[in-house]
Amino acid sequence: MPHSFTTQQxxxxxxxxxxxxxxxxxxxxxxxxxxxxxxxxxxxxxxxxPFFGFDFQIWKYxxxxxxxxxxxxxxxxxxxxxxxxxxxxxxxxLVIFNDDEFSDNDIYLMDKIIEFAxxxxxxxxxxxxxxxxxxxxxSALRYGILEQLENEHINSTDKNxxxxxxxxxxxxxxxKYESALENTEFINYLKGR
Length: 193
Known about the structure:
Blueprint: H1 7-21, H2 29-47, H3 66-73, E1 84-87, E2 90-93, H4 104-117, H5 122-129, H6 135-143, H7 146-150, H8 171-192
Antiparallel strand pairs: 1-2
Helix pairs in contact: 2-4, 2-5
C-alpha cells in the first residue's frame, strides 16, 4: 500500500533533493535514492533523530524509499512534480531551495552528504550502502533474506531497514531514537490532519 505523505513531508523531501542536486554530479534515480538513505542514516547516527522518518525497504539494490522510487520511475513524477523534472536520465531542480523546513543541523548533514557523494556515481553509492557493516546488510541478515537478495532469487522485499541496529551496544541511544520516531510520527499525524 502506498504511503500517504503530508504536504510538509513532501516539501522537506523535495527541498532536500533540490539542495542535494546543486552539490552532486549525476543526479539520477539510483543516486537520489542512495542520498536520501545516507541522509536518514547520518541523522540517526549523529543526532539519534530521523531526518525524514520514512521507511526504507531492503531491495536488491536498496535501501529504497519505495514511493520515491515509483515516483522517479514515472516519465513525469507526481509526488515531486513541484521540485524536480526528468531531463534524460537525470533530474534537475525546478525551484530554488527553500530552507523553511530545515535546522542548522539539517543543512550541516546535507553538506556532509554532498561532500561525501560529490564525485561518486550511483554504483559507488550502491557498493557503499551494501558494505559488510552496512545497515542494509545487517537488516537483511536479521530478516534472513541476505542470501536470497545476493543470489538474485528476490529483488525487493517489504522488510524495512532497522535503524536501531546502529545502536546495538547503546541502549540509551536506541531508546532516544525510538522516542524520536514516535514523536516524528505523532507530529506528522497532527500536521497531516
